[in-house]
């Protein structure tokens, strides 16, 4: 540790000018990164972790500025460096990888050309050698057929592939420091593992230093040497990865650890200890009595959804005389059968494109199935056309909580109006006062302070918006609620609270859940039974313990091993 | 690509049929009697009836329509009663005049508006952003005939820099051999540079008038679209990779920002082509807009129908061109269709 660190952040304060005056996003933080070291910056949204990295590369937006402190990178002060000096450093010495790889690439420029742009900018290649070097860079991030991929546009590549291209872009000029800002958020677990392994392999081989910015403690633990925990713009703890998980010093770190779902814990364990008197009685999901004996609430038999592949219109092919062989339709859901008992939570697990969302959309009757039956409480609702289902009396008994609490609320509706919406449409004629009273009751039920229900979505926090979404779903006392990744967009501490709320509501109101998720740790906590889907088919089915504890299908095993786990934690 | 263009043409046919029917009916519904208009105020009812029979206006509407369509198929748009010429001939003579003026105005507007819009977005809130707003607001709030008259007053009457606003070419010059109908191009083809200069001098003021009017939509759209793209993730990636600002703004941001701008350009163009009647009047420009208005006042059916049909076809072609341009700019568009 005698060698000077590659990057030394000292006493850094970053301010943003807002309409309500200046706000300090980062408050006097110190972080150092040694040569070859991998450092994780962990924190929840608003902790200032991304702002710190933008300050290092000096790509803060117009309103942001470094108010105080120094950032020194191998002897150069990045705060006072000239813009042209910074331009030379960016991409050549310090590179960044971003969240949402598809948006991070220019949508209308070939990926190979985008790599060339960086190579040419930093004089790492000439016009003559640029293409060759760009293909080489693509090959290094293990993209199959790099010659062909050179000509691909981002929209032609999968999310994982796009992230590989972004990595290729970042390391094309052999930088010394790589900053990865939530590089795998939004990617499937197996893709996440592949991308993280690639980053680690490439940086190790080149002796690069890495800063990994993430909200996922498991990820930080699995891949980093040192962990920096940030909360509200301050660094609260810095320690070696092994140490921070076995012996977290700061209360916030402990809280964060506790809220992260892990094997061998119950939902209640996620929450900070509370006096048991006021807390609702929590049961572990397995113990929760699901009424399996009687007829199931939802029974799905041989469900199929086909989508026609796009082809030239018949009129045109007739006119030109070309006879294209009709392509077989794409089967998004390929003959699946399952049941949901009354009071049961069924987890529907799988990676993107496995058909889990299509399934949930068919169950809510937003789209028509191609084949099979959907029996809901003895009625084949699959036979009711999707357009007519809104008027069906069954409609109010099936409700949905959506993935993104912000996007699924009308920005011009107050929380009360959002909660009242299903009641006004299907709940019969409630008077204005009765409606208000019902909304307040629902708000109390989901733990939303009643004085907040006149606010608009942008005036609420993520967790509060999630509660509004849940209140809206339970407003009509449904029998079945479909939860489509309801916590995917939330911070872990908020997720912990929301998951507990869902569990409590289920028992109190006697609902069944169909829980759609890709997060196996969450599924383990909340679900009685689990179905694992892949390419439209069910690969494994059983109780949560069976499937996630001793998986039989190879695919389930693959999913489970791809999850990064924090090292042995005392719960 | 060719298949796509062909497909687009097929989808156009129903709308053209619709245009033909609607314009035919509209002209019939309009108040005013063609026959009595042309017979003159002193004509006897008998003379009017004679003219009516001659024009075929006494036949029932479906028969009139069938006659019209039959002629249309042969490429005959009928005779204009005001000019006494075949409508096709009139339009062929006047359309290039309008097109040349509109295109000149649009290019002028683009060459100012695009850089201005880009600059305003890049330096948001700076003096250039405010300048952009002022120019755009002023341009669009002044009526074109007013701007036109003002320009004529200053540059012809006071300064004497430009020739008299009397049409496309000074009477002392003869028109160059007709190839495209665009005087600037035809004179260059014929190698008559004096004519080119004269035609250009005539064109400049009306073109500027149109340009001032169309600055606003193009500037505003360019600025808004650039602002959206500059805030996009991929521009951040480009900045974080150390690309210089000319590459970021030109190659990365501007090309992405072009799509809505191209749409706006198409709309402005088609709007100007039909709507620059006032400019044509002020500058005595023998364009298609003034032709149509004169025909309308005279209840002269054939030219109106011909005008609307021509505009519809032009509009379709323009949209097709924009679609193709979309495909060139954005690879994602090519897949659909």
Layout: helices, strands, pairs:
The complex is a heterodimer of chains A (571) and B (337).
Chain A: E1 7-18, E2 21-33, E3 38-42, H1 49-57, E4 64-73, E5 76-77, H2 83-89, E6 94-97, H3 101-104, H4 111-121, H5 127-140, H6 146-149, H7 159-171, E7 177-181, H8 189-206, E8 209-214, H9 217-223, E9 226-231, E10 234-240, H10 241-246, H11 251-259, E11 298-307, H12 314-320, E12 330-340, E13 345-349, H13 356-363, E14 371-376, E15 379-380, H14 386-389, E16 398-401, H15 415-426, H16 432-445, H17 462-474, E17 480-484, H18 492-509, E18 512-517, H19 520-526, E19 529-534, E20 537-543, H20 544-549, H21 554-562
Parallel strand pairs in A: 3-8, 3-9, 6-7, 7-8, 13-18, 13-19, 16-17, 17-18
Antiparallel strand pairs in A: 1-2, 1-4, 4-5, 9-10, 11-12, 11-14, 14-15, 19-20
Helix pairs in contact in A: 4-5, 5-7, 7-8, 11-18, 15-16, 15-17, 16-17, 17-18
Chain B: H1 2-29, H2 34-39, H3 45-55, H4 61-73, H5 87-122, H6 127-141, H7 144-158, H8 183-190, H9 193-230, H10 233-240, H11 245-275, H12 277-282, H13 288-297, H14 301-329, H15 331-335
Helix pairs in contact in B: 1-14, 5-6, 5-9, 5-11, 5-14, 6-9, 7-9, 8-9, 9-11, 10-11, 11-14, 13-14
What is the largest interface, and how many residues per chain? A-B, 36 and 26 residues
SSE run of chain B:
HHHHHHHHHHHHHHH
Radius of gyration of chain B (CA) equals 24 Å
Portion in helices of chain A: 25-40%
Shape of chain B: globular
The strand count of chain A comes to 20
Distance between the termini of chain B: 10 Å
* CATH architecture assignment name of the largest domain in chain B: Orthogonal Bundle
What is the beta-strand fraction of chain A? Answer: 15-25%
The CATH superfamily name of the largest domain in chain B is MetI-like
- Count of beta strands of chain B: 0
- Name the average pLDDT of chain B: 84
How many helical elements of chain B?
Answer: 15
Unreliable sequence segments of chain A: 275-289
Measured as a percent range, the helix fraction of chain B is: over 70%
Decide which structural class fits the backbone of chain B.
Answer: mainly alpha
Instruction: Let me know the largest β-sheet of chain B.
Output: none
Radius of gyration of chain A: 26 Å
How is the quaternary structure best described? heterodimer
Give me the secondary-structure category of chain A.
alpha/beta
